[in-house]
């Protein structure tokens, strides 16, 4: 028969053993925060994981309770970055990127003969949206070419509103009794101006 003293002592030891099974500081997960974060937790205390701004939870549990064993359950929670809409195509231009995930930045560039109308870069925000609208590549145009003295246009076809596009050409010829010095053909450049005009003397 167990004496009362030994019985009370066994209860005391059991209480000490149970009370001593605290949970340690929980694992740190990439791009996640634990609340509350402490060095140890008593059985029954709860913690909650939350993903950082710009990240969303993929699978796993977010809330855990410290068990009597003092061992946290295996945490399979993963916080992954938000993904912005596809923006990998720019008509008459190119998009440079690695991924469309937060917080990456993509850049835009136009082909020769086009200029960028809008921002040259865009950043994927915490909300999974681009911080600016995508730009547009607008054709470079040249104004009506000047006509040299004693010359006429022999070949010129403006694109629209008497403007020419990059690469378009204009051809001159001199009036009778005049000689041409220089190239009889000028070209609309990528900078929106014409190459050097010839002279008729």
TrEMBL record:
Pfam families: Sushi (PF00084)
InterPro entries in the record: Compl-Cell_Adhes-Reg, Sushi/SCR/CCP_sf, Sushi_SCR_CCP_dom
Keyword annotations: Disulfide bond, Glycoprotein, Repeat, Signal, Sushi
CDD domains xref list: CCP
Phylogenetic classification of the source organism: Eukaryota, Metazoa, Chordata, Craniata, Vertebrata
Disulfide bonds: 23-66, 110-137
Domain (Sushi) ranges: 21-81, 82-139, 140-201
Keyword match Disulfide bond: yes
Organism annotation: Callorhinus ursinus
Protein's name in the database: Beta-2-glycoprotein 1
Membrane spanning residue stretches: none
Signal peptide positions on this chain: 1-19
SMART domains: CCP
């Amino acid at each position: 028969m167990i004496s009362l003293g030994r019985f009370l002592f066994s209860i005391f030891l059991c209480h000490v053993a149970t009370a001593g099974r605290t949970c340690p500081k929980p694992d740190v997960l990439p791009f996640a925060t634990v609340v509350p974060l402490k060095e140890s937790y008593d059985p029954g205390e709860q913690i909650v994981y939350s993903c950082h701004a710009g990240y969303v939870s993929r699978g796993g549990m977010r809330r855990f309770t410290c068990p009597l064993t003092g061992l946290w359950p295996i945490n399979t929670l993963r916080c992954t970055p938000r993904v912005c809409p596809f923006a990998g195509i720019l008509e008459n231009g190119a998009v440079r990127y690695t991924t469309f995930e937060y917080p990456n930045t993509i850049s835009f560039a136009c082909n020769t003969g086009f200029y960028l109308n809008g921002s040259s870069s865009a950043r994927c925000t915490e909300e999974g949206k681009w911080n600016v609208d995508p730009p547009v590549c607008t054709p470079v145009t040249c104004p009506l070419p000047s006509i040299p003295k004693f010359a006429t246009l022999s070949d010129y076809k403006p694109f629209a509103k008497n403007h020419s596009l990059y690469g378009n050409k204009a051809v001159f010829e001199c009036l009778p009794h005049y000689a041409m010095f220089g190239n009889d053909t000028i070209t609309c450049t990528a900078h929106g101006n014409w190459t050097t005009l010839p002279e008729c003397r």
